[in-house]
């Protein structure tokens, strides 16, 4: 329903009802690969149920939004925007999360100094050492109230030495501003089945499975973070 009326604009390009359909990106490792730090059960539920649910809702919302736009129903479009933000953010954030992790015994997780030399140097320049950075990040993660995420982001252009790193948090499924280096899911669904209320133990476990190769590639611009969530098809 629209009582606002649509004023045709000469030369305006109309997309009609073409919509994007997002699909669940596969995990870059087996469901049990992050054991014992993140259990296979959690990974199955978190990836196959939670992330999939955000994508299913996002796809349905996109279709409804597209139909509302085609009908010039501004009220419906506005009503859908907060839901799109939540479920679209849920997709983006989780798609950024999975490649941020790697099996604890892999070189990607074991050797930050060799797998992420530019990033580790930048971290040391800002926080003094990798250990000091981890402590600062951990404190921020443990300070999150309710559901949210912790992120290491960078900004700047040109050589990596120009980049400013930031530890930021986002609430619920808000997406971070800035280019993501890595992110840590602090929703209870990410840890409760295994760690119960042991949030600090979960964070300690996550530090054992950070994928420093992904982090370095994102930091140096070799891997735009957006490539992790653009699995999409267009349809009418
Ligand atoms: Fe999650």
TrEMBL record:
GO cellular component: mitochondrial matrix
Cofactors demanded by this protein: Mn(2+)
EC class name: oxidoreductase
Transmembrane segments: none
Domain Manganese/iron superoxide dismutase N-terminal: 21-101
Binding site for Mn(2+): 46, 94, 185, 189
Domain Manganese/iron superoxide dismutase C-terminal residues, every copy: 118-218
The keyword Oxidoreductase appears for this protein: yes
InterPro entries listed in its UniProt record: Fe/Mn_Superoxide_Dismutase, Mn/Fe_SOD, Mn/Fe_SOD_BS, Mn/Fe_SOD_C, Mn/Fe_SOD_N, Mn/Fe_SOD_N_sf, SOD_C_sf
Compartment annotation: Mitochondrion matrix
GO molecular function: manganese ion binding; superoxide dismutase activity
Gene3D superfamilies linked: Fe,Mn superoxide dismutase (SOD) domain (1.10.287.990), Iron/manganese superoxide dismutase, C-terminal domain (3.55.40.20)
Reaction(s) this enzyme catalyzes, per UniProt: 2 superoxide + 2 H(+) = H2O2 + O2
SUPFAM superfamilies found in the cross-reference section: Fe,Mn superoxide dismutase (SOD), C-terminal domain (SSF54719), Fe,Mn superoxide dismutase (SOD), N-terminal domain (SSF46609)
Record family assignment: Belongs to the iron/manganese superoxide dismutase family.
Job of this protein: Destroys radicals which are normally produced within the cells and which are toxic to biological systems. Destroys superoxide anion radicals which are normally produced within the cells and which are toxic to biological systems.
Protein name (record): Superoxide dismutase
